[in-house]
Amino acid sequence: MAIRKVRVIGDEILNKQCKPVKEMNARTAELIDDMFETMYEENGAGLAAPQVGILRQIVTIDVEDGNQYVLINPEIVEMSGEQTGYEGCLSVPGKTGIVTRPNHVKVRALNEKMEPYELVGEGLLARAICHECDHLKGKLYVSMVEGELEDVDAADEEESEE
Ligand code: ZN
């Protein structure tokens, strides 16, 4: 396992559409392990493959609910409700901003064994799923911020970096 370099805003790879994963292989399995290691090292709640320079539809999430989620080729199939709160991103270091997201989402994805499953998320998990799935479409949360991007120190300490 290895910590990978996190790409930051301004790097054009963050604005590109990611391709689906067709099969699991040793290289992709290693990428997923590295994504978790990188995410924990950087104190993030989620990471998408393009953030480490790989244009594949892979997301890792850990919102400290006791689970490590791997979403391969995710597709959000249900959204409802609304939540408004601070959001951050490892690719936008030192910044945070207010984003409105659905409070409930259901996502269909493959796990690390390429088995299909569905994940239902509420609150922070729903926010993380939306944020990371946006990365796979080349979209950063900064395009959705209500008002100004703020420096992290000036914001609520509960903001999370995704
Ligand atoms: Zn992000």
TrEMBL record:
Active-site residues annotated for this sequence: 132
SUPFAM superfamilies, per the entry: Peptide deformylase
Entry cofactors: Fe(2+)
Keywords: Hydrolase, Iron, Metal-binding, Protein biosynthesis
InterPro entries on file: Peptide_deformylase, Peptide_deformylase_sf
UniProt EC number: 3.5.1.88
Top-rank lineage group of the source organism: Bacteria
GO biological process, one term: translation
Binding site for Fe cation: 89, 131, 135
Cofactor note text: Binds 1 Fe(2+) ion.
Secretion signal span: none
One MF term in the entry's GO annotations: peptide deformylase activity
Catalytic activity: N-terminal N-formyl-L-methionyl-[peptide] + H2O = N-terminal L-methionyl-[peptide] + formate
NCBIfam families in the record: pept_deformyl, PRK00150.1-3
Family membership: Belongs to the polypeptide deformylase family.
Functional summary from the UniProt entry: Removes the formyl group from the N-terminal Met of newly synthesized proteins. Requires at least a dipeptide for an efficient rate of reaction. N-terminal L-methionine is a prerequisite for activity but the enzyme has broad specificity at other positions.
Name of the molecule in the record: Peptide deformylase
Source species of the chain: Candidatus Lachnoclostridium pullistercoris
